[in-house]
Write a structure and sequence with these properties.
By secondary structure, the chain is α+β, with helices and mostly antiparallel strands. It is 48% helix and 24% strand. It is built from 10 helices and 12 strands. Strands 4-5-6-7-8-12-9 form a 7-stranded mixed beta sheet, sandwiched between helices. It has a 3-stranded antiparallel beta sheet with strand order 1-3-2. A hairpin with a 2-residue loop joins strand 10 and strand 11. The protein is globular, with a radius of gyration of 22 Å.
């Protein structure tokens, strides 16, 4: 359906308003000599030891010449080093220097301070409404057109019952667990609703373009600085599409964003495909529990953790 002129005007008006609020129309971002795009490049480079220039350009959808000029400036300022990739002289990699990481830390600290000041000026109710609206915008636009055929969205009416049903059915079929596991899932879901903290807890459903639910995950508070990933599941017909990785990645992103210092999860030795997802997301197996009789089976529990 085509957008009306009024709808387009509303979005453009919001864009003008919000860019003014966060200060990106000034000479530099957060009182620095770097533009918003330059700061975004520095942030991306800080996520790994080195990055292929082609991958960086594709990730940020930047013009090759513009990116090259930017990296040249960074190189002249001592922020980055560029070199040919080992074993393939056609590829170029770039990495932040120690000075570059200091600049990234400065930008991150100033940005966090400015946002903190913005939020502190709001009432608790207004802050909750603002953050909920921002998460909705990110959920709708960030995952709206995934090429892999699914999107992540917040919980909607009926989803909680579906999570309980599918967990019970899948674990009975694939692991042979009895109904005590489904009862546990029901208690977890009920507890999420009864004690829900909308600012520090969330949950997501993976859904196909046709509206079929194909997975879910919950992020809940365990301690003041520790969150817990719970009830991750992916429907069998969509495994291998990246649904599990997307759900875990969203949980990690959210836990980091709201200020947790660690994300942990409990699983069992049976869930080997899930282990691979956790490992790729940076989780480390830290504890293996002795086998216990549970869910009509003998369960070998495991605790995995990720520093944020």
């Amino acid at each position: 359906m085509a957008a009306s002129a009024a709808e387009v005007g509303t979005v453009r008006g919001f864009n003008r308003f919000y860019t003014g609020v966060i200060g990106v129309l000034g000479e530099g971002l957060v009182r620095s000599p770097y533009s918003l795009t330059e700061a975004r490049v520095i942030f991306e480079l800080a996520q790994r030891e080195d990055t292929e220039v082609l991958a960086l350009r594709r990730t940020l959808d930047l013009d090759p010449g513009y990116l090259s000029r930017m990296l040249t400036r960074f190189e002249n300022d001592g922020l980055v080093v560029r070199e040919r990739a080992p074993g393939d002289a056609r590829r170029q990699v770039v990495r932040l220097t120690g000075r570059g990481r200091e600049v990234q830390a400065m930008l991150d600290e100033r940005s966090s301070a400015e946002i903190s000041t913005l939020l502190e000026g709001l009432s608790e109710d207004d802050r909750r409404r603002l953050l909920a609206a921002m998460r909705t915008v990110q959920s709708v636009l960030g995952d709206h057109a995934r090429a892999d055929g699914f999107a992540l969205r917040p919980l909607a009416p009926g989803d909680l019952g579906w999570v309980v049903e599918r967990n019970g059915a899948l674990y009975a079929e694939e692991c042979g667990w009895d109904r005590t596991y489904e009862a546990l899932v029901a208690r977890v879901v009920a507890g999420y609703v009864e004690d829900h903290d909308p600012e520090r807890e969330s949950a997501w459903i993976a859904e196909t373009a046709g509206g079929d639910r194909v997975g879910a995950v919950f992020c809940v508070r365990r301690e003041d600085d520790v969150a817990q990933l719970r009830l991750l599941h992916v429907e069998p017909g969509t495994r291998g599409m990246g649904v599990g990785a997307a759900l875990v990645g969203e949980c990690v992103r959210f836990a980091t964003e709201v200020g947790y210092r660690e994300l942990m999860l409990w699983t069992t030795a049976l869930q080997r495909p899930a282990h691979r997802i956790y490992e790729r997301a940076g989780f480390v197996l830290e504890e293996e529990e002795p086998p216990v009789a549970r869910f009509g089976d003998v369960v070998h529990g495991q605790v995995w953790r990720k520093k944020l």
